[in-house]
Amino acid sequence: MTHHAANFRRISVRIALQFMGFVFLLFLINGSLFLVVDFGNAQRMARGRLLRDAQIVLNGAANMAQGKALALPPPVSERVRILDDEGNALFSGALFTNIPSFTTEGYSTIEVREEPYTVLTIPLSENDRVYGFAQVAGMERLPMRDLPLRAELYLIISVLVSALTFFVGLFFARRSLKPAEQMMERLEQFTQDASHELKTPLAALNSSLDLAMKNGKYREGIQSAKADLKQVTVLVERLLELARLDTFVREDEPVDLTALVEATVKRYQSLAKEKHVVMECELHQDVSVNGDAILLQQVLGNLLSNAIKFSKPGSGRIHVRLTSKLLAVEDTGVGIETSALPHIFNRFYQVEQSRAMGGFGLGLALVKRIVELHGWTVSVRSTVGEGTTFTVHFDTRARS
Fold first, then answer.
1. pLDDT tens-digit readout, 296-331
2. Residues 6+ positions from 260 with CB-CB distance below 8 Å
3. Who contacts 23 (Cβ-Cβ below 8 Å, separation ≥6)?
């Protein structure tokens, strides 16, 4: 694992932990509010039922004060107790058996067979004189003793969901950071390669100047230094092109690829004639793609310049073919060894023939990067001594 990969993994874990903490806190707050609201609603509903039952009891108590028998529905009568003004029981339902008398007005809590009940005590009065008390009881639907159990359940659910959130967050964090990680790896590799490649021409430049100072041949030394400096300049320009492409946002406009290929081939005809290389085209008409015309021109230019460079002088032929699905540049040059084919699109990679003819091994890397920016692919087929074919395969947006 590289240093950058390890750093991005730590960042992913940190993001996932923060997301998990946020979800866990959200669940705790939501669970606490839910419990409070749930118990509050249960208490309000229970007291509402007690008030309705109390009204029935009050009506029955009034009849009882007139000497009539207390008539209550069976479900209510079991939970009712009538007391006189001194707290003596005048009527007691089954629920109040063995429950001591009390005359505290309002809501109270009692336990019957280890079950909590809420009791509403209402004074009975006539002509502003209290002559007794009516009590009605109802079971608590959400007893307070269940609160720790319910809280523990919410806590367990919160922990499990948060743990799941961590793994989901880690997956998406790593997926989101992957492009940045790849960019950092490319940048690190780019810096290492650039530093390595710049050492050679700079060392040659320094040697040329030192030699000129020693033997006094300033003109020859300066000319040699200028040649080395030109090589450094070209290398830096290519490096900057690659660096810009790593963060490049391409134009996405319709491009007349047929016209672009015709114009580019025409520009390279003179260079081909100098090496006595024949260039021929097989172009479908009205081929159009969505892309960046300047970058596409650079792709074809690099492929043509390579084909001309490695063609056999006097007998070389270059065939450019364009259809709605692909652009191919085929030459009859020296070819590329099979072992080198997987590496030719790597930055600074050069086969032996390329090193002998100069260059930096950046042209094909530029081609691949531009093709990838358009969402396409590029492939190569070659036979040593017979030639090479580079093919750019367009995506489904290409049309003719």
1. 888 898 899 889 888 887 778 999 999 999 999 999
2. 293, 296, 297, 300
3. 161, 162, 165
Residue 383 lies in a domain: yes
223 located within any domain: no
Asked if residue 353 belongs to a domain, the reply is yes
Structure tokens at 233: 């300049």
Q: What is the pTM of this model?
A: 0.47
**Structural domains in the chain (count):** 1
pLDDT digits (tens, 9 = 90+) for 222-233: 776 666 666 666
| Contact indicator for 274, 398 with CB cutoff of 8 Å | no
pLDDT at 239: 60
Return phi, psi of residue 372, to 5°: -65, -35
Q: With contact defined as beta carbons under 8 Å apart, do 360 and 349 qualify?
A: no
* Cβ-based burial of 211 (10 A; exposed 0-12, middle 13-18, buried ≥19): middle
d(CA 158, CA 206): 68
CATH number at residue 262: 3.30.565.10
The span from the CA of 8 to the CA of 174, in Å, is: 8
How many CB atoms neighbour CB 179 within 10 A?
A: 9
Tell me the C-alpha distance between 18 and 89, whole Å.
63
What is the amino acid identity at position 136?
A: V
Instruction: Provide the β-strand partners of residue 327.
Output: 322, 392
DSSP state of 132: E
| Pairing outcome for strands 129-139 and 80-84 | antiparallel
Extended strands (E) in the chain: 80-84, 89-92, 106-112, 115-126, 129-139, 253-256, 278-283, 288-291, 317-322, 326-331, 377-383, 387-393
263 within 8 A of 281, measured Cβ to Cβ = no
